[in-house]
Specification:
By secondary structure, the protein is an alpha+beta fold. It is built from 8 helices and 17 strands. The strands form 4 sheets. Strands 1, 2, 4, 5, 6, 9, 11, 13 and 14 form a 9-stranded mixed β-sheet that branches. It is elongated.
């Protein structure tokens, strides 16, 4: 005989897991979706998202992306080519993590059988961005495209998702979910124009939204990320914006004081610029004239690392370095003026 306590616990687990399991499965299209030839909510659209879902879980280190797309015109067939960027060395994706299929208007299902391609997009010494690319098969006008991709993140890296709510095509329904797990000090910035709100359900963040308009695409418009709806998650050791700026102000003050410390070298330099019997105003003007003769690299050109190494120039860490090199940025030169003025005995 089964233990009734075990059975009740099992039923409870299944009840909790059922919504997730249902979301994880491919969906049977409705008759209306199959017959659909145009979308009154997106007149003239080449394709629309019937449903889009994005979920990230910091406890399993998995991010999942799922989409159902209705192709309405020949141009809409372009969405059969799916390209998903990821950072190589941080995220991994295997062929078993990619599922897809095409459903024709008559209900015929053609599963994805061709392996994906892994293409390099950007590479530097310490960074490489790749894209997983695959093509859904046998796409026709009237087809429904369906796919899911899972990325596995290295345990050494935290998951900090950015939900890009708007896409080039209209979205009927979308669901976003993030479980940060045991990570604390999580914050987010939300820029969602429809009024939809991020909901915190016992530490799991969700956003459900409907009728999302396409992202703007106009000539001479500002950068897209200043307009596109999105939610950005990030971790911070500070509990509030106020705490952050209090700490930032303190750190900047310490750095400025250290940078402008009137060293012996600067005191010797200022002795050659001003006379002991000069008034404070005359001293200030003479020091100003001296620093204005230096090269301001904000208006000329900063030397490359190779050029600085060839000329045996060290990185600038204090005002004394600016005076020795006779060049610096506008901030460097301004702080050098402060340091020389202090070396001359002026209150700055």
């Amino acid at each position: 005989m089964r233990n009734p306590v075990f059975v009740s616990k099992l039923l409870l687990v299944l009840a909790i897991a059922t919504p997730v399991l249902l979301r994880a499965q491919f969906q049977q299209p409705s008759a209306e979706e199959l017959k659909m030839t145009a979308d009154p909510k997106a007149p003239g659209a080449g394709a629309v998202y019937l449903y889009y879902e994005e979920s990230s879980d910091a406890t399993t280190h998995i991010s999942s992306f799922y989409a159902r797309i209705k192709v309405l015109t020949e141009k809409g067939k372009e969405l059969a080519t799916v390209s998903m960027p990821y950072e190589r060395g941080v995220d991994k994706v295997k062929d078993k993590d990619i599922e897809g299929r095409t459903i024709h208007a008559d209900g015929t299902v053609i599963p994805l059988s061709v392996k994906s391609s892994d293409l390099m997009e950007v590479k530097t010494k310490d960074f490489q961005m790749n894209s997983v690319v695959f093509n859904l098969p046998s796409v026709e006008v009237g087809s429904i495209l369906e796919y899911r991709v899972k990325f596995h993140r290295s345990g050494d890296w935290e998951i900090q998702p950015t939900w890009l709510i708007q896409k080039p095509n209209f979205i009927h329904q979308a669901h976003y979910e993030f479980n940060p797990g045991y990570y604390s000090n999580l914050h987010y910035m939300s820029y969602v124009g429809s009024g939809a709100k991020v909901v915190d359900k016992k530490g799991i963040y969700t956003l459900d939204i409907a009728d999302v308009p396409p992202e703007p695409n106009e000539d001479w418009m500002p950068p897209l990320n200043t307009l596109r709806w999105r939610v950005e998650f990030y971790y911070s050791q500070y509990a509030s914006i106020h705490d952050f700026w209090i700490n930032a102000r303190k750190n900047w003050a310490i750095w400025v004081q250290e940078f402008t410390k009137p060293t012996n070298h600067l005191k010797e330099a200022v002795a050659g610029i001003v006379a002991p019997d000069d008034s404070e105003e005359v001293k200030a003007r003479k020091i100003y004239a001296a620093v204005m003769k230096l090269e301001n690299t904000a208006f000329t050109r900063q030397k490359s690392k190779a050029e600085r190494k060839k000329d045996k120039l060290k990185d600038i860490h204090k005002a004394e370095d600016v005076w020795k090199q006779k060049s610096g940025s506008d901030d460097d030169i301004a702080l050098l003026y402060v340091a020389l003025a202090r070396a001359a005995g002026l209150k700055v």
